[in-house]
Amino acid sequence: MESFLIRALQLICCFSILIFLHEGGHFLAAKLFKVRVEKFCLFFDPWFTLFKFKPKHSDTQYCLGWLPLGGYVKIAGMIDESMDTEQMKRAPQPWEFRTKPAWQRLIIMVAGVVVNFLLALFIYSMVLYVWGETYTPVEKMTHGMAYSEQAHKLGFRDGDILIGTNTEKFRSFDSSESVTNAYRALSNSTEAYVLRNGKQETIKLPGNMNMLSMIKSVPPFVQTLIPSTVDSVMPGSPAAKVGIKAGDRIVAFGNRTVASWNEINDEQGRIADALTTANHADSLALRNITVAVVHKGATTPDTLHMTMTTDYKIGVTYGMALKDYEQKTIRFGLLESIPAGVDHGIRVLKGYVDDMKYVFTKDGAKSVGSFGAIGSMFPANWVWQRFWELTAFISIILAFMNILPIPALDGGHVFFLLYEMITRRKPSEKFLTYAQVVGMTLLILLMLFAISNDVRNFLLKFIIRV
């Protein structure tokens, strides 16, 4: 429960910052061109607001909504989320959005997106300035990687150190971003390069693999190899009862010879799958397993018999393999951090845009999530560096999504404004009203779909735990 609250608080803080600054971009641009802003609302406020005030001699009412799904500014003389059609029936006023030149209206509409994108670049730069960049050089990952059956068929072997492809050299494989970049390169490349027994080997690739399928396969196409050394043993567990201790190395699990926790996890998963259709007698038989262990300081294995718990575990944990590797830290001065942060932000945006094509696939549609999926990205403990990195990433997502030419989004307004500037013909207010309704309907349906995916994924995890 505590971890859920910490994640929720991080998500709310992140969204509060991004929404406030996004809407602030629209607000300041409107004020620049003397357009009246009637309302500035952080979060949505259907039916009621938590807090509102209007400064003396101000045209703007400031509000705090109760629904943290976004926010808005109500700009006079504009067809927006408020659907204030009555205002549009009155004679146009010089302080209204609709009376301003198209180029000014365009700047007002893109201001929020520009603020989000520049904010992301600024945050990335400041993260590099404050914390620097610490990573594990991929060539230092001497245990190598573990590969799926699909990868084995292409020529990869467990223990190969994946160092790059013919399209990109890999610097690291120790963060979600570096792993995603590696998958992206592998899916589009025709050659992969690995270090095997100290020598570089070339592996041919199809050049058109589905990145999402590679990531979602069980086991994934490639992952960090974790040696089968026991890090700790839970008191009273099956492993503790047969004498397994920290530092021991598991060399066989069931009928399978193993050298890594990746293989042990695969075998446990296979047993768990078999147990879902087994009767009571078969279930007990499947849970009775033989484990071969080389105790710390010994050279020959000891064969042990035990019964796994009802959730198919033996009661041991393993440490992260990355702690065995040498890390490298790069420090940035203030002037150095800015171009480095800008370069990093642009690469993140390019990668995100490139991956958008998977949204239109069956697996991609299932991966679309709402606030539950976004919240799960945050760590269970508050780590400021990670908080700001995710805030910058989400800011880039919001900038890109908002500029899409969908009615009701900033990009929809931009699209109609560009049409007006090119053709010299302004769309009618009736048309813009219909477009706003259609766009809002589509966005609500998309949000409901994303929320249903969050609920489905939560229930699946709950069922698996039970």
Structural class: alpha+beta
Strand order of the largest sheet: 2-3-1-4
The main β sheet shows up as: 4 strands, mixed
Number of helices: 15
Helix content: 40-55%
- Outline the low-pLDDT stretches: 460-466
Distance between the termini: 17 Å
Q: Indicate the proportion of strand residues.
A: 15-25%
The radius of gyration computed from the alpha-carbon positions, rounded to a whole number of angstroms, is 27 Å
The average pLDDT is 86
What is the tally of beta strands?
17
Structure report:
The chain is an alpha+beta fold and 466 residues long. Helix content is 48%, strand content 17%. A four-stranded mixed beta sheet has the order 2-3-1-4, covered by helices on one side. Strand 8 and strand 9 (199-204) form a beta hairpin. Helix 1 crosses helix 3, helix 3 crosses helix 14 and helix 10 crosses helix 13 (384-403). The longest helix is centred in the last third of the chain and has 37 residues, at 429-465. It starts with a helix and ends with a helix.
Describe the SSE topology:
Elements: H1 2-32, E1 37-44, E2 51-53, E3 61-64, E4 67-75, H2 85-89, H3 102-131, E5 133-135, E6 145-147, H4 149-154, E7 161-165, H5 176-188, E8 191-196, E9 199-204, H6 211-216, E10 222-224, E11 232-233, H7 238-241, E12 249-253, E13 256-257, H8 261-275, H9 280-287, E14 288-294, E15 302-307, E16 316-317, E17 328-330, H10 334-355, H11 362-367, H12 371-375, H13 384-403, H14 410-423, H15 429-465
Parallel strand pairs: 1-3
Antiparallel strand pairs: 1-4, 2-3, 5-17, 6-10, 7-8, 8-9, 11-16, 12-13, 12-14, 14-15
